[in-house]
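Help wanted!
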Amino acid sequence: KQEVTQIPAALSVPEGENLVLNCSFTDSAIYNLQWFRQDPGKGLTSLLLIQSSQREQTSGRLNASLDKSSGRSTLYIAASQPGDSATYLCAGGFNQAGTALIFGKGTTLSVSS
Amino acid sequence: DVKVTQSSRYLVKRTGEKVFLECVQDMDHENMFWYRQDPGLGLRLIYFSYDVKMKEKGDIPEGYSVSREKKERFSLILESASTNQTSMYLCASSLRFEQFFGPGTRLTVL
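Answered by r_m:
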């Protein structure tokens, strides 16, 4: 059974720090890995999508990597800001049709000013 | 810009009522999904649809049904609401791999 795990469940950092969020998955036959942000009581906002043929994707201060052989993805946030405080979820896509997304339970990030 | 909308942000219903949750996307996406999100359990897939009138059960379809009569609209139906269906319901759509989510509906069943 495919599983996606995010550790730690919560993380607190001071403003300005660079940080890495971790995501691991059990099935190396992954088609894609998507990172989301969720603010309290809201829906999910797509941040980055990495296809299995790619190693990383970048958007602004965010950089996501995918290592299929080790079963890991990381989301790097540079120069963190209080506005980055949210829950970050990763989700692995395990079929070609894109209809089987398995979610981790998220890491709740708190950035203090 | 990608847009997925859900009919209500907050909904309060009574046990036994029939409940309709509506989702509309304006991106001409083939796939649409309904999830529920609960503390400690994460997101769980209820149903998805890969075309008009086509549907597939997800991980937790019991107590739910769905309808997709038009490509842009996907409805989740709780035939007889129960208190254990109190949850955050999230709709999403995708063309291939990237899923885009709506704002969510917080449903409370009393």
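OP: Thanks! One thing I noticed: The interface with chain B takes residues 31-32, 34, 36, 41-46, 49, 51, 89, 91, 93, 97-99, 101, 103-106 of chain A (CB under 8 Å).
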